[in-house]
Amino acid sequence: MKIVVPIKRVVDYNVKVRPLGDQSDVDLNNVKMAMNPFCEIAIEEAVRLKEAGTATEVIAVTVGRSDSQEQLRTALALGADRAILIETNSLLEPLAIAKALTKVIEAESPQLVILGKQAIDGDNNQTGQMLAALLNYGQATFASKISIDGDSASVTREIDGGLQTIKVTLPAIITTDLRLNEPRYASLPNIMKAKKKELDVQPIDAMGIDTAPRMELLSVELPAARQEGIKVESVEELVGKLKNEAKVIS
Q: Which pLDDT tens digits describe the chain residue by residue (250 residues)?
């Protein structure tokens, strides 16, 4: 079994982002970048399937600038066998990313595609679903447990009412939730080995896909500061404030 794992380069989750002075976008100057946390979970799950003998090859893929090779090398250090960078200097929307990934998946013909349910920068939660639609693959989103059995996968999903277990026929798209696994750290020997693993760079312009944006970014600004909370001494006082000051009940 071959597994493709799309990943994304994002601002490190510990960094507090700020808008540019002209509010045209997020300020990424001298900001620490990292692999999207949900993508780390996807890589970990693919590597575990390989270690268990279920998969034979794990391929990490990303769409982005040449700087994204850093995150691909991290994926290789974590256990991926090779990597593909679909290079572009444009900030693409989920649909364009899904189209680019479709081209790679059609060429690689994997039995399974595992990716994070969302990226922590845009929080769109769209690419996996769009990818499944473009490929006409079955999909299982928000996975907290994956079990492969022959030509199908049983996936436990986290839903509003609890847990739901479904079975999808392979090839399929699976998106990962937080509780699927605990990603490992890359060891120094594996980091050194990753430098020698194959990393293929493919320009997105050669793919013949439409990457034109469907949306226009007008401005980026910090959210309004929240008012400081207060404590009340009794339920009656709380009800009074909700009724007379907040006007949320009558």
A: 999 999 999 999 888 888 888 888 888 888 899 999 999 999 999 999 999 999 999 999 999 999 999 999 999 999 999 999 999 998 899 999 999 999 999 999 999 999 999 999 888 899 999 999 999 999 999 999 999 999 999 999 988 888 999 999 999 999 999 999 999 999 999 999 999 999 999 999 999 999 999 888 888 888 888 888 888 889 988 888 888 876 777 6
Task: Kindly compute the dihedral angle of the four CA atoms of residues 125, 97, 93, 177, in this order, to the nearest 10 degrees.
Answer: 10
Query: What is this structure's pTM?
Result: 0.86
The rounded distance, in Å, linking the Cα atoms of 220 and 217 is: 8
Beta strands in 88-223 (DSSP E): 112-116, 138-149, 152-159, 162-169, 172-176, 199-203
The class (CATH top level) of 2-225 is alpha beta
Residue 201, helix vs strand vs coil: strand
Rounded to whole angstroms, the Cα distance separating 156 from 22 reads 45
Which residues have CB under 8 Å from 133's CB, separation 6+? none
> Among 206, 171, 173, which residue's Cα sits nearest to residue 85?
206
Tokens of 42: 């996807």
